[in-house]
Design brief:
The chain is about 35% helix and about 25% strand. It has helices at about 5-20, 65-80, 100-120, 170-175, 185-195, 200-210, 220-230, 245-250, 260-265, 280-290, and strands at about 25-30, 35-40, 40-50, 85-95, 120-130, 135-145, 160-165, 215, 235-240, 270-275, 295-305, 310, 320. It is globular, with a radius of gyration of 20 Å. The structure holds adenosine-5'-diphosphate (ADP) and magnesium ion. Magnesium ion binds next to strand 8.
Length: about 325
Amino acid sequence: MDLGELGEFGLINRIRKWTSTSNPGLLKGIGDDVAVIETGKKVWLVTTDLLIEDIHFDRRWGDPFHLGRKALFVNLSDIAAMGGTPKYFLISLGVPKNLPLPFISSFYRGLKSGAKRFGVDLIGGDTSLSKKIIINICLLGEGRKGSLLFRSGARVGDSLFVSGTLGDAALGLNILQKNEPQGIPKGLIKKHLSPSPRIQLGQAIARSHWATAMIDVSDGLLIDTSHLLEESGVGAQIWEDRIPLSKLFQRWVHSFSKDPYQFALSGGEDYELLFTAPPEMRKRVSYLARSLKIPITQIGEILPKKEGLTLVRKEGGKYSPSRLGFEHFK
Ligand code: ADP
Ligand code: MG
């Protein structure tokens, strides 16, 4: 069997079986948005992400400043999904010899501005020669043991909520790939080049104690929902017509895709938060959305595991999605 058959998540499941852990302070290893390590009353949250030129980004489409910010923000999103507070990060770079210095200085200005906005400090890293640009960030965050939300707490009957709108970043990427930014509002491309992590929202949800599970939507709504379902041992249905779409998205999506839901369901890079809570907590969810001025929409409900993940069409029909979202090797 090769990686094409196994896929990224199949490979991670194998790795999970090949390895074991021995330190009692480890509260969560492989299988969530971050690893969780207990030290006294506090816990450390650790996460890492890799960005590779021509796989995750194209130098022609974005400037190095926003690339630097994005490299940090995709890691911050995983801390947000746990309800933690980001603190320190290390960055390792692989760079080609002919890369102009202003590219790197601008990249670090972007990193610095992102770090300042969320109060995180760069504390080290590593540098090496490489044919293409490789960016790896390892981020450390802090949390309190009773105020963290894992992927694994969803219960049958819970409501499924998502913040913000979905699909904008994937549509933005599609527009850039088709080389058609002329005349198209910058807002659509912005969500791809410059996403924003939901740190404050993640903390508020985790500290509220009414939510049961949470994950960030980085690879696509369906695939990230499936990770939450798998870790919780449950199924779910998602109501297609409830999926929150921005006005810009609705105005432009038909020029780029016959299926308007394709980008929103499996596009990826939304960096929104997907979480579950018992249905009687709906009013509290609405209150939180209003007080933070962030839209939160109920898009479905948690069902028993045997139901799997199904989508309910506006007209009433149901289907099980074949392609869930972005997965490396597939
Ligand atoms: P996310 O999309 O939130 O970054 P991933 O899907 O990348 O999460 O990872 C899922 C889990 O698998 C995480 O706990 C991550 O640390 C772990 N993981 C990913 N790749 C590897 C690897 N090569 N070796 C060990 N653990 C891995
Ligand atoms: Mg994540």
